[in-house]
Write a structure and sequence with these properties.
The chain is an alpha+beta fold and about 425 residues long. The protein has ten helices and 16 strands. Strand 9 and strand 10 form a beta hairpin. The strands form three sheets. Strands 1, 2, 3, 4, 5, 6, 7 and 8 form an eight-stranded antiparallel β-sheet that branches. It has a four-stranded antiparallel β-sheet with strand order 9-10-11-12.
Amino acid sequence: MKRLLVCLLMAAGTCGTAHADGIPKFKDYPAKAYSGEEAPLRLNTPQAQQNGPRLRKAVEQPINFGGRYVFAQWGAGTQCDTGALINVATGEVHFLPFAACNWSGFSKPFEVRKNSRLLVVAGQVGETGAIGAHYFEFTGKEFKPVGENVKSLTSVEPAAGPTEPTADAEIAFPDNRSLDALSQAIVFAIHRPVFHKDWVSDTKIFGPVQAKKLANAFYVTSIRKTVEHQGSSYTLLYNTDVDLFAIIKVPPKGEPFAGFVPGQQISEELYKHADNPQYLANMLGIRQGVVRHFFDHFQDIKVLDELFTLYQVDEKRSLPVNKSMVSFAKLLSAKKPCREAFEKMLETAEFRFPDGKTSKDVGKFYLSIWFAQLENENGTVKVDGAAAFHDVATNRYGGYLIFDPQDTACKPTRLITNAF
């Protein structure tokens, strides 16, 4: 998920760090990675002691902010969230001096990166502040405001500019056993051996070698969280490209296993959320909250392992997993060559939004989420790619392009806009 916004305080002379394009970016606030020993958690203040249980749980997570900090967040009353930074090198806790409130029109209240000192806060800073996106640099002692966008926005993702290449893009798979487990799950998803008698002959086209490559691609392009649960290590994944959840379970003894569940199934069956008939609207608007809730509360699911293996025993449930995984394999080949062409098209083409504004009125756009759209045509399944785009200045969702992953000319078949 991607990034944000324009500093609107220049006229008042309170904007802080200047940026070439006026948009604070994570890369503008780099942080050196800490690789030393972790210090014991210091609960040496009344506030730290009061929040001891959640801080002890948070410090078990990997560094996710500023090179040496674990950022933890929690609810702080109605429609508000707050949090703290834990310095793994010293054990010191730095509490946010504010809360993110009324951020329901955003994908999440906070956005952070493990290699950046920039914190992005969505909604209001406190219950009486202006609604928008707010940027803070953590100096090691305080959260220093460096910019904000407080225009009247109806849909903003709290992030900081288009994706920049980072070391994360080259992240290695956690271990060979986990890679093998996810590869085997992918082989099943592609060939469906229980329901397809001639599946062995198909492995000449897509076998273990191809499955491992696809497993690596799925892992790298997914949102990930690794946690300990009931004595086993779980890696939770959600891939926006094909709207698939996955888990990899590594028990203390025995072999790891992996499995998949479509996003719509998690949304409707697990959280009783009735999806909008428009699939793309769900992908861009609803899934973000579902993913966040699943990652935060997966331990409450009593039949977690069984849920992620149903596609291997139930033919009806195996079909959407199969279609999504096949489309993911096809979509991968279209990503790199087409991204540059699509971004150039968005830069040069002039198109109109439903409210009458034109692309020239809005400004520059960047591509954010890629995923597959499955359409039935005369009883067959056609795999289309969809690429969502957002406004660079405000990160407002602008719409999406539909394209054929097999079209090497990279010409979108449709452009669908959203009202700004």
